[in-house]
Amino acid sequence: MNSKLFDTVLVANRGEIAVRIIRTLRALGIRSVAVYSDADAQALHVTQADTAVRLGGAPANESYLNINAVIDACKTSGAQAVHPGYGFLSENVEFARALEAAGITFIGPPVDSINLMGDKIRSKNHVQSHQVPVVPGIAEPGLSDEQLLAAASDVGFPLLIKPSAGGGGKGMFAVESVDQLPEALSSARRTALNAFGDDTLFLERLVRNPRHIEVQILADSHGNTVHLGERECSLQRRHQKVIEEAPAPLFENLEHGAQIRERIGASAVAAAQSVGYVGAGTVEFLVSDENPDEFFFMEMNTRLQVEHPVTEEVVRVNGEKLDLVDWQVRIAAGQTLNFTQEQVLLVGHAIEARLYAEDPSAGFLPSVGTVLKVREPVNVRVDSSLREGLEISAHYDPMLAKLIAWGQDRTEALTKLDRALADTVVLGVLTNNEYLRLLLADEQVAAGQLDTNLIARKMDQFTFRTIGPSELALAAQLEYQQVPTLRTPWGVRDGWRAGVHRPIIMHFEVGDTHVQTSLPVGAEPTSIEHAFAPDGTLWLSDQGWSSAFRKLSREEVLERQLASLAKESGTYSPDVQTPMPGTVISVQVSDGQQVSAGQVLAIVEAMKMEHQLLAPVDGIVHISALQAGDLVKAKQVIATVEPILETEQEHRA
Fold first, then answer.
1. Helix (H, G, I), strand (E, B) or coil at 120
2. What pLDDT is recorded for position 131?
3. Which terminal residue of the chain, N or C, has fewer Cβ atoms less than 10 Å from its own Cβ?
């Protein structure tokens, strides 16, 4: 432990992970350097670092993915080492090589380890040769769609398409039959190329109802490697983790769970040692729920994981918690692990929930905007980048914060986490808070009966809070208190007349819905959290639920009433609008082309998610002059579809 640490470390990341790394650097007495894009100039990680350097424009490829800009920032700031966090350049072998060439220490594994484990095909074939079990499938570099189609029958259905590069579930598609495969391969290649710059794919047998178990390892440059127990990350939506915990409930509920933990931990250590791994890393496994003794290597993440805090909360060495970032820095500086595998103990249980800017009730559509009010819980650990006034843009991942609860047992940890989510307030953008609470309340989740398909099965059963009379009355009351002109008959503009009292009627837009209510008489002030945006939109939050109410003008009310009448008469809106700001990934039709209802017209990416824009009816499409890379605004009309009358269809036929 006597090797000298670095004087200055640059954190090549943003958001909550940058804030978390800076916290440890400060504790070590190391000067921290933040980097930022134009969109993050006022972000929390920028203000908390000792100094900050601008990288470039808001798009990630102009800033956080710009290797030359990060290297220049190191030289400008005098940084001797770089911590990449996770995502962005954390597993980019060219970045590691560039740092090495510049004489700057990469706080991560050696280049060769990243290169081998960063490619799922190479890593799978490599660990298999070191007696680590792998999922059956075909994993060879450079396979074309035709070759994958030909090999699919030997792999067997259902199967899983996976990109060789990258992670986080992006580009992964489950395929049930051969007729679904061509389209899925096309989408997987496009997603992989956009996300990782590499569209290489491979196929694996799909293990039904699997458990996702991962093992945290630490390895120094002196030949010492230990594992720090396992995490269970089986609660996923579209291969993206939602809730993570340690230790794994699967093993905790088994009589021989300790023996399986020892075996899977030894496999993780073997996989890491086979590539000369140095630093913190995670080896991920699929474990059969029906046969927990059977587990398969999936991949190794050569970086810190989003869910690393649950390991930090349960691992004890000589009675003390471990700080994984602290050890990453120490190992990169040449220090030796000062403990052995036998000294690693797991104490209690920890569960983490990821708070995202998204709307679960609208298909998890990402939410953008300005954070108006924040209240974070005090009874649990919170890794967060939130602050009032923060702009949540469409350029980056929608994760806002992580809430991590520790308890003597799993039940206590679940209870603490649910209470913490109920106490969390974020106004100005929609979040998945209510969804997380519904998930934690599920009977199977409470019992630890988890698998990676649970959310897909259960999602339709979740009952989200709806806008009812009480919520509308509260919105009306707060709006009335906020706008002085509403308190006079001349300001109301609702047809006031002398004589018989007429109630004040208010109209709101909630999501895409037009609702109305009358101002309650004698309403008492409310304790529910609320905030008004600069445009007048009212945000409410209560026990994890939140919603936005925008008061409509008389003109807007009339417009919506006419639109409603038109809809009832059988007409429809021919306009195809973007759901939120984003970047055009592809345009799949040409102007004047005949299209069918439900046909994909274009694909827009926002917050690392693809959104398909579909034709509302059969007809002729008139599409804007869009091309890949173009930026679009929220509710921007990108196309109109002119319906074809039956007589025209007959003529065209």
1. helix
2. 85
3. C
Burial of 652 (0-12, 13-18, 19+ CB in 10 A): exposed
* Nearest residue to 413 (alpha-carbon basis) of 381, 454, 457: 381
Q: For residues 272 and 221, is the Cβ–Cβ distance under 8 A?
A: no
- Amino acid making up residue 265: G
Q: Distance between CA 45 and CA 18 in Å, rounded?
A: 6
Give the span between the Cα atoms of 583 and 586, in whole angstroms: 9
Q: What is the pTM of this model?
A: 0.84
pLDDT of res. 119: 82
* Integer Cα distance of 364 and 357 in angstroms: 9
Strand positions, DSSP E, 428-526: 505-510, 513-518
Contact between residue 278 and residue 312 where contact means Cβ atoms under 8 Å apart: no
CA distance 259 to 274: 23
What is the rounded CA–CA span in Å between residue 653 and residue 647? 10
Token pair in block for residue 332: 């990169």
In the prediction, which pLDDT does 647 show?
Answer: 45
C-alpha distances in angstroms, 340 versus 258, 269, 314, 563?
18, 13, 17, 70
Residue 249, SS3 per DSSP: helix
Q: How far is CA 616 from CA 488, 511, 572, 626, 640, in A?
A: 44, 20, 9, 19, 9
Name the pLDDT band for 427 (thresholds 50, 70, 90): very high
Distance from C-alpha of 108 to C-alpha of 13, rounded to nearest angstrom: 14
**355 or 452: which leads in pLDDT:** 355
The dihedral through the CA atoms of 123, 207, 413, 344 has a sign that is: negative
pLDDT > 70 in the chain, percent: 92
Per the structure block, which two tokens stand in for 220? Answer: 């120094």
* DSSP-derived secondary structure for 609-620: EEEEEE-SSSEE
Residue 526: closest CA among 469, 478, 468, 476: 478
Over residues 227-242, the pLDDT tens digits come to 999 999 999 998 889 9
504: pLDDT strictly greater than 90: no
Q: Which long-range contacts (CB under 8 A, 24 or more apart) does 264-269 make?
A: 264/213, 264/215, 264/230, 264/295, 265/215, 265/227, 265/229, 265/230, 266/227, 267/132, 267/133, 267/215, 267/295, 267/297, 268/215, 268/217, 268/227, 269/217, 269/225, 269/226, 269/227
